[in-house]
Amino acid sequence: MLLAAWPARWPGTVKMVSTPIDGQLDAGEPLAHPLIDPCKERHEVSDQLRGGTASAGLDVFLSGTVFIDMIFSGLPGLPAPGTELFVGGLGSAPGGSANMAVALSRLGLRVGLAAAFGDDMFGGYLWRTLAEQEGIDLSASHRIRRWPTPVTVSLSYDADRSMITYGEPLPFDKCKLVTEPPPAATCFVDLDDGPPEWAAKLRSNGALVFADVGWDGTGVWSPAILDRLSAVDVFLPNAVEAMSYTRTESPEAALDALAARVPVCVVKAGADGAFGIDNLTGERAHASAIPVDALDPTGAGDVFDAGFVFGTLAGWCLEDRLKFANLCAGLSVRHYSGSLGAPCWGEIAAWGEDPDVPESVLEQYGFVVPYIPPSAADDIARAFPTVGYGAELTDLD
After folding, report:
1. Please, are residues 334 and 134 in contact by the beta-carbon 8 Å criterion?
2. Model confidence pLDDT, tens digit, residues 38-76
3. N vs C: which end of the chain shows fewer Cβ within 10 Å?
4. What domains can you pick out in the chain, each with its CATH number?
């Protein structure tokens, strides 16, 4: 379905402008705002160089493990031993570091991913989906002979999820995945392993280093891991992680403790929104989550992070960065999977046209309007129960 790029309900808009599928504006329909590309200058330079270096001028570079995610939803609870549950929802999609890579790319950012891909059926599906469907630069990635693709089964219930993962170790040190990183304005790292050498190289060349942290299955939550924040510019943990590492009792208290260690810190609190401090500007802010009916929370934190990266590149104030990140994460949980559930600009535009969204909520997001492409359409791929459908098959009536 073709969507209008400039929702008339949103503050500051003058008139509805629709765009044919070929991307050409209807005659006599001027844009209410000039379209804004937060990375315009870098993209112009990159376009001049793309005949040489494929990854020149990336907006974001990241590295990590890519999984094939199988997401079951609609569970009344976890299955008891010796029982079987039949559920109403199943999706399959790229997972792991692909969650954030896809979310970033769907916002129009130029994304490079360094990851290992197996040479099995799942590996081929992941490579095609990320490179061809989602437009992610995989020139720094590797296809590994006779290495099985990691698989995660996610059981989504009661607005949360449990996961089971299978994966074999790489046949080489994962530090060898990236030696010389491509030029990029920002990069994203996992604090669990510590910022890698390639991130330090990018940072020395002016890139911002964003970091998140994973769940500590040991239950130790060693505060020593926070010493690694000295190599990070923006830290984005969730509330449980933040409170566990800082030994505090609230997201706000955890934020105060972490903000003393890093220039910008955000604590993601799910349905309670997000809290942030930007020491560079002196801002402190809280933004509420948007009201949605959650289907699957898998990867919502990664989608939030992607929205915050975009807002940072756009130069927004802290509160607007938090609002946009909440919006992206909120829209994502309405779909299966964290990667293919990530919103595109068409879905963001459609949300602005939804009569069920209260005006009091919508009016807070007028700053987003100039960034919506005029041809925005919500026609992106979502997660399906299989890893792909066959072509040229007969449909039976």
Report:
1. no
2. 666 556 544 544 444 444 589 999 999 999 988 887 778
3. C
4. 57-371 (3.40.1190.20)
